[in-house]
């Protein structure tokens, strides 16, 4: 039983996925599944913090790998300062 997940009517769910990017659709599907899995169990750190923590590491790793480890190019693509990128990489154990 879905306690925390909101089920969209079929026609609204179709409209939602047709207007979303593949990334947005993937996030929506994953968050719905996560909410269904945890039920009424509280998320101690908050769902937003959990999603950011879980997504940021792989995002940084993939962008950096795509740019062959070039932090300046990766930072530019991410829209952040290189120093900020280095701080985030260190926080995620990626340096």
From TrEMBL:
Residues 52-91 form the DNA binding HTH domain. The lineage of its organism: Bacteria, Pseudomonadati, Pseudomonadota, Gammaproteobacteria, Lysobacterales. Pfam families: HTH_8. Keywords: DNA-binding. Belongs to the transcriptional regulatory Fis family. It comes from Dyella jejuensis. This is Putative Fis-like DNA-binding protein. InterPro entries: Fis_DNA-bd (IPR005412), Homeodomain-like_sf (IPR009057), HTH_Fis (IPR002197), Trans_regulatory_Fis (IPR050207). It comes from the Bacteria.
């Amino acid at each position: 039983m879905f306690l925390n997940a909101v089920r969209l009517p079929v026609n609204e769910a179709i409209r939602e996925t047709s207007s979303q990017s593949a990334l947005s659709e993937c996030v929506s599907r994953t968050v719905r599944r996560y909410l269904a899995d945890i039920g009424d169990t509280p998320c101690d750190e908050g769902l937003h913090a959990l999603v950011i923590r879980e997504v940021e590491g792989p995002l940084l790793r993939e962008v950096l790998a795509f740019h062959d480890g070039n932090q300046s190019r990766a930072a530019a693509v991410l829209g952040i300062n290189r120093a900020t990128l280095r701080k985030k990489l260190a926080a995620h154990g990626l340096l």
